[in-house]
């Protein structure tokens, strides 16, 4: 027996998402079945639905910021019971044996992680489908505990936007005294501001949107730099220890490299692909600066991030939408018009 599931899918790169029925596997011994309550809307969902990365397989059910309630547990499940509030992020499996997997860095699995959607399951070789749906079946190793009392809607974006920004902040040892800047105030950017502030850093925002300054201050920014204003850019030359770049599109990073301090690093988490303009190595060499990248975070660190957020009273700033409004939400995100993450209320899916 398999489970019939309702969801929303893209059927091609240039069509709207529409209702879609499909099957989920029966739980394996180590699986939990999760009734999905909320799912955040990540810019990666748009990249995938529209085949921006050239690997999309259709039908494609996006969604990797999943919050739900456990309804069934397999016989070998030890960490969860029916009724628990849980989360699922961007990956649902990995080889579990290589050195990165052993170290809890499953996102860097040498055989490649199994993504929550648009991947092939390692066991039954069927496509994975994401969280824009009413149920999902996931091995318990890839399921997170949602801390008691945390707002469930606001917790959904932590599963991708939260961990994707938390992981580089931790890897580059951000703490009191650090000068951190964030490029782009969207879903990832607003989490980066909150998390960096909670870690004790001095926090700045680079934005192209003059209207976002007031929100940015509320979210934790001590300083706003309008990246289109050369004088404002020059005023922060050599300032930052760490810059987290969340811009989803190709862009010139050279002006931002100039704002790194000695030993500073600019970490790309948004755009995937060759940069334009070309990277000028002169400031890197003369300032021992680094340009780096980072993808999501492993399971132990994702749980650490959720617990950190619970301790600091952090969740995402969200706009709750019905599943039926997803195509409008994509259009608004493409115009940088979201404060600061859409979250789908799965109760809006027809039964
Ligand atoms: P988002 O909510 O759409 O926010 C992106 C922000 O970037 C915008 O609000 C805008 O901020 C700025 N921006 C957009 N286009 C720009 C351009 N052409 N030049 C300069 N700034 C621009 O997106 P998101 O969900 O935060 O995702 C951001 C990127 O991260 C996406 O590419 C997504 O696929 C990727 N991602 C990566 C990982 C990972 O593990 N590495 C995980 C999740 C997502 P301002 O208005 O403030 O300028
Ligand atoms: Zn994402």
Task: Produce a short descriptive summary.
This protein is 24% helix and 26% strand. The protein is built from eleven helices and 17 strands.
Question: Can you give a write-up of this model?
Answer:
Helix 4 (161-171) crosses helix 10 (299-312). The chain has two domains: 3-160 and 297-348, Quinone Oxidoreductase, Chain A, domain 1, CATH 3.90.180; 162-293, Rossmann fold (3-Layer(aba) Sandwich), CATH 3.40.50. It has 351 residues and is an alpha/beta fold. The chain has helices at residues 43-49, 99-102, 152-155, 161-171, 187-198, 213-219, 230-235, 254-257, 282-287, 299-312, 326-334, and strands at residues 3-9, 18-24, 31-41, 66-73, 85-88, 91-93, 114-115, 135-139, 144-145, 179-183, 202-207, 223-226, 240-245, 260-268, 290-293, 318-322, 341-345. 24% of the residues lie in helices and 26% in strands. Strands 3, 4, 5, 8, 9, 16 and 17 form a seven-stranded mixed beta sheet that branches. Strands 12-11-10-13-14-15 form a six-stranded parallel beta sheet. It has a two-stranded antiparallel ribbon with strand order 1-2. It is globular and about 60 Å long. The mean pLDDT is 97. The protein binds NADP nicotinamide-adenine-dinucleotide phosphate and zinc ion (ZN).
């Amino acid at each position: 027996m398999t489970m019939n599931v309702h969801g929303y899918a893209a059927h091609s790169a240039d069509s709207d998402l529409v209702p879609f029925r499909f099957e989920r596997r029966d739980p394996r011994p180590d699986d939990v079945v999760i009734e999905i309550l909320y799912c955040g809307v990540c810019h990666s969902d748009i990249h995938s639905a529209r085949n921006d990365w050239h690997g999309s397989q259709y039908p494609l059910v996006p969604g990797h910021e999943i919050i739900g309630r456990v309804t069934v547990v397999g016989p070998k499940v030890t960490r969860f019971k029916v009724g628990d509030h849980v989360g699922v992020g961007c990956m649902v499996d990995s080889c579990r044996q290589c050195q990165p997997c052993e170290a809890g860095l499953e996102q860097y699995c040498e055989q490649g992680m199994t993504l929550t959607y648009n991947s092939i399951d390692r066991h039954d070789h069927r496509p994975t489908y994401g969280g824009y749906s009413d149920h999902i079946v996931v091995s318990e190793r890839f399921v997170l505990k949602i801390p008691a009392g945390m707002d469930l809607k606001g917790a959904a974006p932590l599963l991708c936007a939260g961990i994707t920004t938390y992981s580089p902040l931790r890897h580059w040892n951000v703490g009191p005294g650090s000068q951190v800047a964030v490029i782009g105030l969207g879903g990832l950017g607003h989490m980066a501001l909150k998390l960096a502030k909670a870690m004790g850093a001095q926090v700045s925002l680079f934005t192209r949107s003059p209207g976002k300054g007031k929100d940015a201050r509320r979210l934790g920014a001590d300083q706003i730099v309008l990246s289109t204003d050369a004088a404002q850019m020059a005023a922060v030359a050599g300032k930052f220890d760490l810059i987290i770049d969340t811009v989803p599109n190709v862009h010139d990073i050279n002006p931002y490299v100039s704002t790194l301090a000695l030993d500073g690093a600019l970490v790309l988490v948004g755009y995937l692909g060759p940069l334009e303009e070309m990277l000028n190595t002169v400031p890197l060499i003369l300032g021992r600066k680094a340009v780096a990248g980072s993808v999501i975070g492993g399971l132990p660190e994702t749980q650490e991030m959720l617990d950190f957020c619970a301790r600091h009273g952090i969740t995402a700033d969200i706009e709750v939408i019905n599943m039926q409004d997803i195509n409008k939400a994509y259009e608004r995100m493409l115009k940088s018009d979201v404060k600061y993450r859409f979250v789908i209320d799965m109760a809006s899916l027809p039964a």
